[in-house]
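Hello, quick one for you while I still have it in my head. A protein chain has come my way and I'm curious about its shape. I'm sending you its amino acid sequence along with the backbone structure tokens. I'd be grateful if you could look everything over and explain what you see. Here's the protein in full, and shout if anything looks odd to you:
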Amino acid sequence: MMEHVRLFDWNAHVTERHFVEETDLDNCNIEKILRNKFYDPLISSDSEDEAPNKLNWDEIFAPKTNNNDKMFIPCLRPLPPYPKLSALTHHQHFQILKVLSEENPHILPDFPMHKPQKQDHKVYEAVKEIYLKEQKEYIEWAKSLWFMEHCIRTLRPKPAIETVYEAEFKVKMLRMSSLPKQYDIAAQIPLESRRKTCEAVLKQELITVNLSDTPFARIPDNINKHFCILRASAVPEPCPKHPYQFVLPNEKSVSVLPTSEIHRELAQYALTNGAQYIASENALKCLMQQNRPWTIPISVCEAIGPDGDPVNVVVLDSEFAATKECAQMRTLKAYRHLLEQSLIPMKEKTRVWKNKKEGLAPTKGQTTVEVDESSEDEDNMFICTDDDTVMSEMETESVTPHCYKKIDSNMDKKNFDKDAVGYFTRAESKKISESINDIGFYNCTCKDSAYENPPRRSFKKWQFRSKTEVNHDIIIHCPHKARSKSGGELLIEPIVDYQLDLGASKQTTDSIRSLALSLMLRKNASVVIARVDGRTADIASITTMSADKFTSTHADIARSVPNIVYTALGQLQGLLPGHYVLQHEVEHGMNGLLLSVCRGARAPQLVLAAGAPPQDDAKMLRQPPEITPELLPYHKFRKTIPCAFTPFEKQLVKEPKKPAPKKKAPPQAIKLQAEQPESGTTRKVPSHSGDLFNELNECSA
């Protein structure tokens, strides 16, 4: 025992474990992390040339997110009340969905989906007839839901939609203020002739527009977040100084002339360039749309030809509304305005506004006009003003800069940076116009606003030819509003879906025809079709198609565009000078009513009045939107195919439980027996064997 005690080193140093030494801190990983001196151990120590890579610990310790679990699905709504199961199985739905996803790669591209194999295509071809039959049943079921529930969605547009439409409606009413107010029926004319084969040929580009002067529209490739177009945006306001915001082809600034005078100027411009007609793109697009009511003004003006003889020229102006349109059209036009405002960034609007201001800025210096006094033309004659008139003009010119100096000083006091914003707000521009007193009654409300200058227009001369009849030369002017990244022009068109929970609404033939006309009038243009939920204004999908692809997809419809324009121009030939209105209703079919100024004592057919009652919504609601088998993002997410019933039994609408059977009232005899008193107090019924019976027998004896 003592030997073991001797072997033990009693003086040996015991390591301290209760305190941390400096060497321990140097080798501690936590200390290295705090000092940001922790190096990745995977880097070889032999490579001295590699710089130490510092780790971003905020990113490392951040909570991990799974993109698939939190993927945004546009316009994902609760399941509709499916009445029956699909004739196809769940596996067949998935196989068909893989084929449709390959045909539509722009629909929810971030969602993982396997590529279809040969077996999937075989299954799709095998069950195609069953699928088409189920599509018809599904579409009829959707129509029944429209009349029962969904039609009420169109009758209640949101206040923001009504505000946008009201602003545009007031501008159009002011534009028509200089035209006659009462019209009567003059004739009924056809708008389409299927027997004719016509073609359109571009003869000359009179005025072109540089697309760099148009704003750039940012089209999202993938809708990975909530995108609602119902947002605060600038709306046009009626301007008494500029009743018709139009830039004449020979001018650079917005004209102050009324509509009737602008029609005369356009007629003279058309005759100078050898055309008998001049029309706006909007007027020709109305001719393509026969499924909705529209009204366009027509003026036949006398223009002086090169020989000095008057020649009648037909002017077709843009659409206007004599009364407020139905709820569906109000929503569509407001969504078109809001969609354009949402896709164009604010920086682009500011850049375009500044470029227009710089282009329209007057140049300093005096201009001299040389007049040939030997010529006897009336154009060289001028009026010599008095000294008082000249002095009054000089006084007005001297007053104008002081007003602008006062406005600039007020803006400086508010520290308002005009160049940073790009344009004033409507309230500020209104204050500016009110402070300028030298204009008089015609105050400008569009000064320094987003709508001070309308979109630039191009003027092109077209010829619509027919093999059997005469040719028509027409000048068509088109506005250019947006461009793409590649430099081509963009046409933005919304499709309003009121039954998006059931499927996508089919684009009407008239809408396709009007887009085909717009593409025909432009070079290197594309169409941006956005599906918008009618209730919430959320965008479900955005599709961009080039002009060639759009025309090839709808070749039969696009082929009828020149025929309609040629037929309408032929019917308007030979009209007497004056103002007319071409009106179309849904019940007219392929015809239209030509209205002339009411001169007799008969009641007018059309009255241009601001307080006229709105159109009846019942006419448009009688035609429910047709559902089309187009793939939507939620189809891909739920792994179901469009225009088909659900393959899952759990998603069927549950039948309401039958109420519990009511307890029937007991018979009257049982009620009376229950109401009798207790057995101890009841009177006993005498029996035949009782004493009372014997007593009665004795009495009778």
